[in-house]
Design goal:
The complex is a heterodimer of chains A (405) and B (219). Chain A contains 16 helices and 8 strands. Chain A is of the alpha+beta class and 405 residues long. The longest helix of chain A has 30 residues, at 129-158. In chain B, the strands form 3 sheets. A 5-stranded mixed sheet of chain B has the order 1-2-7-6-3, covered by helices on one side. In chain B, strands 4-5 form a two-stranded antiparallel ribbon. Chain B is flat, with a radius of gyration of 29 Å. The longest helix of chain B has 12 residues, at 144-155.
Chain lengths: 405, 219
């Protein structure tokens, strides 16, 4: 005896709707629009990114074009967002230190320094002299790495595929080899501590730094001879992406981008944090605020960094690298708040911390320089072509790990 | 720069209806801050930016802080003399009091023209549920544009007068505000409706079900 099937076999060719099966939920695909030869003055909206090679990561620009000219541009980001600040609130103060490496992964030493500075301000923690000098040495080496790479990436965006970048990477490799031998990691250094540094460098390490620093001006001369006077470079960057002095101040732009617009504001000089007041260096300033000036700022700042490094290596004192009273375990700052900021290679990187007396910060906030510097991206791109927007974005110097956090 | 008390007194003299409160910072940094009221915040901000002595033209950092409702237990001790003449008793009374929470927005202001700072300015919402509107200071400092969008995105403060208040880090369809202290993350971020249920229904419809076992068992 056979029992009837639970669901009978439908006749071949029966539609799903007849069986009561709903149509499948299909994801909405891209809308395909016909492309005409003439646009008849229509505006065309295009989306660059998030996987475009010139956007330095997963970054998207929605640009509205009139012919080739940009009339509107909206940056879209957050693709790398992992709520870094919430992670910081859920771990102890020290456990956030390796996370700060992942913000701007080209400049982990300065991120560490900014965070250490903020926590030291929060807890009233002094730092010994040798550690202050080491911080300056490593911070300025990071500046060399960042600016050399930025110039390389900028030229990638200009179309000289990879040659300047490889010159920059050759120098960067030497410096991050030093970072590796000191801290154990090339990019994620995790080197600073509250009240000092983690490892004391050997004399051999310092001699190696001195060798690289002394050879760096030669690399810069070679780099500049190749790039600075280049005709295509001048045509593509001069007068492109002009950022006025007033807008730069109002929009909170910091770092080389601000100084390219002619505002003398360098936190190393203004705040005098660390031992920077002991050093003799100058702050280069631009005149026009265009992409060329932003390029030149980086080159000139590298030359000043070399001067700082030579002075720091000359004057580096002997002594402890950690304050003996600094607490590593059971670190609980008193209730209060502090905002510590330094002049990172990309601009002002600051950390705002609120303590409620517990081992974890109540509030942990990163003030990311490249996030704020993107505010004026649209203003700089308006009226230029879509190809120029790539170069302008390259000259802003963003790292998406820091923008998205 | 003037001391924060002087700035507060000048603001109170200049804006008679405004409330400007000094919020002390007990930590070693000792950067005290000024709490402004929402109604006068933008006028005060314009004053801070344009005043000749202050010229706080650079708004460095804008951030939100969440202060949830807090139950505070207060203990009062009263000494009750023993009528029998023995030692007096100490009786503890515990009273519970609900301190209402708020969302706070903190602005760190510096001056590029005068090279001084910071002045820390705070704004507080009425509560955390429905009175979360504050005036936007983006018309004063353009630097606040993206950062206020971030505070809106992660904390849910609505900035009145912001030119383009949208989510910036989370995606537009996201419902909650993840930096709030009481935020609970979903079990599975990656979940999205997939056709699996329908696939199974079709498979069931297409293939015959296995024949049921005979009732008595084949012994």
């Amino acid at each position: 005896m056979s029992t009837p099937l639970a669901t009978p076999n439908p006749e071949p060719g029966t539609l799903n709707s007849e069986l009561g099966i709903p149509p499948w939920a299909r994801p909405g695909g891209p809308t395909v629009r016909p492309v005409h030869d003439e646009f008849h003055g229509d505006l065309l909206e295009i989306s660059m990114g998030p996987q475009h090679p010139s956007t330095h990561g997963v970054f998207r620009m929605i640009a509205t074009l009139d012919g080739e000219k940009i009339v509107k541009l909206k940056p879209v980001f957050g693709y790398l967002h992992r709520n870094h600040e919430k992670l910081g609130e859920n771990t102890t103060y020290l456990a956030s230190m390796p996370y700060t490496d992942r913000l701007d992964y080209l400049c982990s030493m300065t991120n560490n320094w900014a965070y250490a500075l903020a926590v030291e301000k929060l807890a009233g923690q002094p730092v010994p002299d040798r550690a202050q000098y080491l911080r300056i040495v490593l911070g300025e080496l990071t500046r060399l790495v960042n600016h050399a790479c930025l110039v390389g990436f900028l030229f990638n965006d200009l179309g000289t595929s990879f040659t300047p970048l490889l010159y920059a990477f050759r120098e960067r490799e030497k410096i991050i080899d030093l970072f590796e031998s000191l801290s154990g990691s090339r990019m994620m250094c995790n080197y600073q501590r509250f009240g000092g540094c983690r490892v004391d460098p050997t004399p051999e390490w310092l001699a190696e730094v001195k060798k690289i620093v002394d050879g760096f001006p030669r690399f810069l001369d070679e780099f500049e001879e190749l790039l600075t006077g280049n005709e295509i470079m001048l045509a593509r960057t001069q007068g492109i992406g002009v950022l006025s002095r007033e807008l730069a101040i109002a929009a909170g732009i910091t770092g080389p981008m601000l100084r390219a617009s002619g505002v003398a504001y360098d936190i190393r000089k203004v705040d005098g944090y660390g031992f920077y007041p002991r050093f003799d260096f100058r702050v280069p300033l631009g005149e026009h605020g265009d992409t060329y000036d932003r390029y030149m700022m980086r080159i000139l700042e590298m030359r000043e960094s070399v001067k700082i490094l030579q002075q720091a290596l000359r004057d580096l004192p002997e002594g402890p690298i950690m304050d003996p009273k600094a607490k590593i375990r059971g670190f609980r700052p008193k209730a209060g708040e502090a905002y510590g900021r330094i002049e990172g290679p990309k601009g002002e990187i600051g950390f705002y911390l609120i303590s409620d007396g517990s081992p974890n910060p109540y509030r942990y906030r990163v003030r990311p320089p490249s996030f704020v510097n993107l505010t004026v991206l649209e203003d700089m791109c308006l009226g230029h072509t879509i190809a120029d927007s790539v170069v302008i974005l390259g000259s802003v110097d963003i790292v998406l790990g820091e923008v998205d956090r | 720069m003037e001391t924060i008390e002087q700035i507060r007194d000048r603001l109170l003299a200049r804006f008679p209806g405004a409330t400007v409160t000094l919020v002390p910072n007990p930590g070693p940094a000792a950067e005290h801050s000024l709490l402004l009221d929402g109604a006068h915040a933008r006028a005060v901000a314009f004053f801070l930016r344009d005043d000749e002595a202050l010229r706080l033209d650079y708004c460095s950092n804008v951030t939100g802080v969440d202060w949830p409702d807090k139950e505070i237990v207060e203990t009062t001790k009263t000494t009750v003399p023993d009528p029998a003449g023995g030692p007096a008793k100490v009786v503890e009374h515990k009273t519970k009091r609900l301190q209402p929470g708020c969302l706070e927005v903190v602005y760190h202001l510096y001056s590029m023209a005068r090279s001084h700072g910071p002045l820390v300015v705070r704004l507080r919402t009425g509560n955390r549920q429905d009175a979360v509107t504050l005036p936007s200071l983006t018309p004063v400092w353009r630097a606040a544009e993206f950062q206020e969008r971030e505070v809106y995105d992660l904390y849910g403060v609505i900035f009145e007068g912001h030119p383009d208040l949208r989510r910036i880090l989370m995606w537009d369809e996201f419902k909650d505000h993840p930096m709030r202290k009481d935020y609970v993350s979903p079990d599975d971020y990656e979940w999205e409706p997939t056709p699996h249920g329908e696939v199974l229904a079709r498979a069931k419809a297409h293939f015959p079900a296995p024949p049921p076992k005979p009732a008595g068992g084949a012994a």
